[in-house]
Amino acid sequence: MKVAITSTGNNLESKLDLRFGRCGYFIIYDTETKGMEFIPNPNKDATEGAGPASVQLVASKGAKKVVSGEFGFKVKSIFDSLQIQLIVLKDNEKKISDIIELLNHENLN
Amino acid sequence: MFTIFVLNICSLFMSPRPSRLRKISNPPVISGFRPYGNKNIKGKVEAVFLHFEEYEALRLCDYEMLNHHQASVLMNVSRPTLTRIYARARQKIAEALVKGSQISIEGGKIYFDSEWFLCSSCGCYFNNPEKQVEIKECPLCKSTSFSVYAENNNNEEEEEEEEEEE
Ligand SMILES: [Zn+2]
Fold it and tell me: Nearest 10 degrees: CA dihedral of B148, B153, B156, B161?
């Protein structure tokens, strides 16, 4: 399964970007292959429509979950209609590597 | 000004706990209103922040013309709570009209159609966009210790308010 994570920078030591639509980078992580892709956010400096444009980008990469610090109302409703799950972390000290580690946890059941 | 300040302080003491999330069906189509022609006002007038839940209460009661009971059911709050939210909405709008303030619609303790869960293991919040599928684990850390954020939060406050009314 592919998971999108909003990041402030383009490496694993970068921290989670709490903004969704105007984050620095999107990281698309594949939990099966462990492969990842860093995509600079083209909507970073957009004055309008950054949220919906970013949703399109994330959805076009096949992500089924998105990790970020907050989601606007428009964004939330588009993600809902696409059945993409939202994960909110209110922690701007979390590194991308920490989040990937969480995603790689073995099932505890 | 002074009265409002005092009211705010009172409400701080009166509800120390986080209150329950309110359900609203759709976000408003605009972010707010700007006044115009305020020639007699000197300096900058502070904006009034109308919370989404207040907007929704106003929409249901004064636009959809529902009664407070019907609106409270739709917003998933008790009737006294709905009445309180609605009163606050009207007070804020009146304040904006009288003072010539901009109205910003934002914030508040609300959630939209799908519910939120809180994982006690990694601390993340997550929703369930596929409502027919039951959530079994945290989508981030796979822990099974999570709770429904919107429901379990505060039943005490609701009870307290029911009592207040009597
Ligand atoms: Zn978790």
Answer: -110
pLDDT tens sequence across B107-131: 655 555 457 888 999 999 998 887 6
Which tokens go with A12? 């694993």
Strand order in the sheet with A63-68: A36-40, A25-30, A2-7, A63-68, A85-88, B125-127, B116-119, B146-148
User: In terms of CA atoms, which chain B residue is nearest residue A75?
Assistant: B27
Residue A109 lies in a domain: no
| Residue A26 lies inside a defined structural domain of this protein | yes
pLDDT tens sequence across B46-60: 888 888 889 999 999
Domain boundaries, chain B: 19-112, 116-165
Is there a contact between B113 and A65 if contact means CB atoms under 8 Å apart? no
Q: What is the domain count for chain A?
A: 1
